[in-house]
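WARN no homologs supplied; continuing
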Amino acid sequence: MSTSVFGILTTFDHTVQDWKTYRSRLTQWFVANDITNSTDVSGIKRRAILLSALSEGTYRLAADLALPKDLQSVPYEDILGLLDKHFNPKRTGFGDRHNFYASTQQLGETHSQWAARLRGLTANCTFSNVEETLRDRFIMGLRPGVEKEKLYAMDMTDLTLAKAVEFAENLCSAKAAAAASVGAAAGTLVVHSDIVNKISQGSKHVKSGVPGKQKCTVCGYTNHKSSECRYSDYVCRKCNSKGHLRRMCPSTKVNYVENVAGGEDVGDDVYTT
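OK structure emitted
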């Protein structure tokens, strides 16, 4: 009859894994598979599972720690004690407190992530009032910005860590939304400005008689530039000045543009010198 096994118990390698975390997972694996002090009174089964889950290097380390006893004969609880003592030495607390007070919010780290990381640093600090200390360091360690400025101005009487984190997150979200709306408005303004410019340019061309083209100041046609006009040496029959035809005479208030589709025909509008 086969027995189902719940969960996956991975191998423990002390060079890349944390013993405290692994031990907690091991305990939960035992609970899930009903391996307890009642079902395994002697601890032999738990010892066998633990030792078989150790990597070769970690097994060798455990065997050295157990000397002069043979590791396979050491009780399960004693093996846990040996590993606990080796991987979790007693701390004075000042080193951990230094790391706690020296920590600051990192670039790209959200306010919630910063608060969670900060809480993890209090594990061995033995603060008498953890929540108050966490709140203070959370605010003091924030990156410079409007969130930090506004939190500094708040009354700390009823301000908890949870409220500080929530306030900072909401303010950050509002700031991001406001920035996005300003960017969208600026983009709309640019589009509108471009449309206005195009309309303005089009209006100039319409006034000249032919949309999108400029007329020659000599003859009034739009199929060439003024400097290339063949009538530039002709004399105006209205003002007797050289350089333009009668139709383009400055003394005339309204100039017109001919349709050049059928070719040019100035008739008796001009004469040469």
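The radius of gyration is 44 Å.
OK
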